Amino acid sequence: MSRASAAAALALGLLLAAAGCGSAGSRAPGRLYFPARLQGLALVDSIGGDAARATLRRMHGKGVAPVDTRIGVYGGEALPTVLYVSHYADSRTASREMRTMVERLGAGSSGFVPRRVFRAAGVQVHEAAGHGQSHYYFARGVQLVWLAAPPDRAADMLAELIGVAKASIPR
How far apart are CA 165 and CA 19, in angstroms? Predict the structure, then answer.
């Protein structure tokens, strides 16, 4: 590994740690993290900071203003698994952004079809289908989380990500 690659890897690790993420070995119960692997798929790309915020603005408009955002891409499949985690200044703001997202998706103009709402790991999780994938999204404290994954693996990925038994995720 070159010095530049090593420095980039260290910087990414520090950013993930600062964003409340860590390795599976350092995960505190109930705390979200960006695992190196998710259901056997490797984390192949990750962006944060201004680049990730710009991606959110393109997807959602100018009004989305998290303090920090991380986006991780898993696997090399045609439809990769993507994990978005945005951190807001406080839990009220994260909850408000979550409500706005639920309202927009419920309006049906986004290409997503809401499927169900359920509780897992102490949070209310929303599920939607769209663009060939299953999507789970929820607010946890100051974080707003969105997981987009292939339908046949999505529920197991969510269970692994939030640290609950697979049976606790509705199918």
Answer: 25
* Residue with token string 């909850």: 95
Given a contact cutoff of 8 angstroms between Cβ atoms, the answer to whether 144 and 89 are in contact is no
- Residue 18's H or E segment, with its range, is helix 3-18
The CA distance from 19 to 30, in Å, is 15
**Close Cβ partners of 139 (under 8 Å, ≥ 6 residues apart):** 91, 94, 95, 97, 98, 123, 124, 145
> 111 burial class (0-12, 13-18, 19+ CB within 10 angstroms)?
exposed
- Measured CA angle at 116 (ends 76, 21), to 5 deg: 45
- Decide: 122 and 30 in contact? Cβ < 8 Å: yes
Tens of pLDDT along 101-137? 898 887 766 788 999 999 999 999 999 999 999 999 9
For 78-97, the pLDDT digits (tens) are 889 999 998 889 999 999 98
Q: For residues 86 and 73, give the distance between their C-alpha atoms in angstroms, rounded to a whole number.
A: 15
